[in-house]
C-alpha cells in the first residue's frame, strides 16, 4: 500500500502493474494476504519502469507521512536510540517470522540489519530491502536529527546506483554483504528522541499530554526513593494513591511496563550523575538502588549500548555533551 500511494502520486499506471503481477487493484485492507514474491515482482517492474531508487523513495515517503504517528508512538517510551531499535526489532519479528532483523555488534558500532533467508536473487528483493533501510533511517533520525547520515551502510545487492552515491556522498556503501545494514556508532546509541510524536492532524493529543503529566509525576516519585533500593510497584502505587492494578493498566495502555519505567528513571539519573567527574561509579550505582557496580553497569549498557565508564569518557573526549541529561 505504501508503494501504491507513492506511485500514484507520481502518476504511474499502478493498476496495470498490479494486474500484470496478479495483485488486487482495489484493496485498501493492510491485513489481506498477498504472496510476497508477487509483491516483490511488482516492486521490481515498477523500479525498472518508473524509478530506479523506488525503495529508498517510498521509505522516505512513508516515514515522513504515514509511519511516524503509528510506528513511533509504539517506541516513544524508549529512553535511547538503542532501546528504540530493540523495540522495533521485536515488533517486526512478531509480524514477520521469515525476516531476520536485528543488531550485529562490533567494537565501536552496531549494525542495524535486515535480511530474508534464501531470497536474495528474487526480482524485487533489493527494492524491498532499500525500502526497509530507508525506514530505518527515519527511525534513527528521530533520535539523532534530520541531518544525520551514516558513515557506513551495507547492501546485499551486487551494485549500487550512482544516484544513491550522490545522495549519500559521505557514506561508505558496501555491496554483496550478507545482509542490508546501517552502521551506528556506539557513542550515539544513548541519545534520546529529539521530536514529539504528533497526531494525524499534526497537533498534540491532549489525552497523551495528560498521560505524560501522570507519567512524569510517577517518575519523580520513583526518583525520590531510588537511593533506598528498587522501588516496588506496590510502593509506587501507594505513593500515587492508586492500586497496583490501576497503575499497571495505565502504563500498559501506553505500551510501557513498570519495570521498564524504573529502568528509564535509573538511566536518566545515572547519566546526570556521571556528568560529575568527581562522582565514583560505585557511589552512583548505590544512589540508583544497586547493591553492586556490576549490576548497575549491566543495566546501563543494556539501555545505552555503552558502559558508564565509556559514557563518561565520551563526554570528556568530545568536549561537549552529546545529548541532554
Distance between the termini: 40 Å
List SSEs in N-to-C order. Answer: HHHHHEEHEHEEHHHHHHH
The helix fraction, in percent, is: 40-55%
- Measured by DSSP, the beta-strand proportion falls in 5-15%
Molecular shape:
globular
* CATH fold call of the largest domain: H-NOX domain
Runs in which pLDDT lies below 50 for 5 or more consecutive residues are: 196-211, 320-325
In angstroms, what is the radius of gyration? 22 Å
The number of distinct structural domains comes to: 2
Task: Show the helix and strand layout.
Elements: H1 2-10, H2 14-20, H3 36-49, H4 54-75, H5 81-95, E1 99-105, E2 109-116, H6 125-144, E3 152-154, H7 162-167, E4 172-174, E5 180-185, H8 206-224, H9 233-239, H10 244-252, H11 258-274, H12 281-287, H13 293-304, H14 308-318
Helix pairs in contact: 4-6, 9-10, 12-13
Please explain how this structure is put together.
The relative contact order is 0.10. The protein is of the alpha+beta class and 325 residues long. It has helices at residues 2-10, 14-20, 36-49, 54-75, 81-95, 125-144, 162-167, 206-224, 233-239, 244-252, 258-274, 281-287, 293-304, 308-318; strands at 99-105, 109-116, 152-154, 172-174, 180-185. Helix 7 (162-167) links the parallel strand 3 and strand 4 (172-174). The chain is globular. Strands 1-2-5-3-4 form a five-stranded mixed sheet, covered by helices on one side.
